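One such given next:
>
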Amino acid sequence: METPEPITRFFQSNTARMIMVGALTLILLIPLFFVQNLIQERQYRQKEVVREISGKWGESVYFYGPILKVPFQIYTQTTSVNEKTKETTTQRIPETHYAYFFPEVLQNTSAVNTTKRYRNNYESVVYESRMQFSGRYVTPDFSGKDIAAADIHWDKATVMIRTSNMGSIRDEVTLSLGGKKYAFEPMYSETKDSVATLETGFIDAKTFLDKPSVAFNFDVVYNGSQQIRMVPIGKTTQARMTSNWPDPSFSGRFLPSDSTKKITDKGFVADWKILHINRPFGQQSFGNLPDLSDFAFGVNFIVPVDQYQQNERAAKYGFLVIGLTFLVFFLIQVVSKVRIHIFQYTMIGLALVMFYTLLVSITEHSSFLTAYLIAAVSVVAMIGLYSVSILKGRKFPLFIVGALSALYGFIYVIIQLENYALLFGSIGLFAILGAVMYASRKIDWN
């Protein structure tokens, strides 16, 4: 029994071929989806390795201090009535509270030396920081509170620091205050946050009362990773950070001064000057020490765009590469009257998908640029040689090689761009669409 002629003509028409090629393009999204999952899996594994290295070496550093802590007593009055005698008894029950005073001047100089640590094919940035603090306190002022002088326990004052990453402090932390030295000791906290407290023993703050100000200084040496943040609690806070890290990312509420900031391929120098009028909190707190982490400033020590981010961005253009490549082959098929079987389209599509697996695997052992060049040259050469046997000549295969090379080059440029990626990509796609419309303007689709 013969197949009706109209059906035969339909399957041999350009419309049917376009439908089949379009369906194949959508089907190839499945292996492309698995490739993207592979990239995300490797990226997740890298983050695990970074967390593991950071956990052993030292995590990010958050510093809040030094804070002068002075205890005082307030009284609550309770009244009780004896049921038998009907006598009323009044009692004053003392409760201990604390006043927290911030320095008048706080100065910090931090020297941060970064290194890269490797685990298998993954890398992490770690650092050793030497942070030197100095400044001065003025006489604590209780005049704004209704507290009797006898209820202020000056002899039980302490100085405290709130900080993270205590397990990676590399040396004893000793405070020099008013010509005397006091060692900081860790204080037990029932809270489960990552910030802990270091506190000195008792300091007799009465000796401060007859002085206009008292100077202090101390050093802290950390092993850390990823980030350093400090809270500007001085009425005037000045900080300078120097490092050999060439790609700092300044973060937090306050940025360093542009006039003194220097960033080179050998490192950076950054200065901050923050006044009390720049922040929404005062120089003292009664009752509870406030959480001021939202007002911290600092630097992130991270790789700006790692290899897996670049691979992920490249894979997002996979559908575009497959679609445009199939479009070129389809136009050549229509113009040259050469039949290209759907199986041959499938082989070409799989070769295009293989580009991304090659890219990921080679990137883990070399730079992204080297991996991109090797993967692109390999795939372009494979498709070029395969198209010679399909198209029975060299003219169209050479055109395909040139078109694929230009497409991969175009995508690489987009991946490297950040602020102008969308603009450049939109202009490029507009130009490609215009070229396709021009090339297909005289084709008889019937």
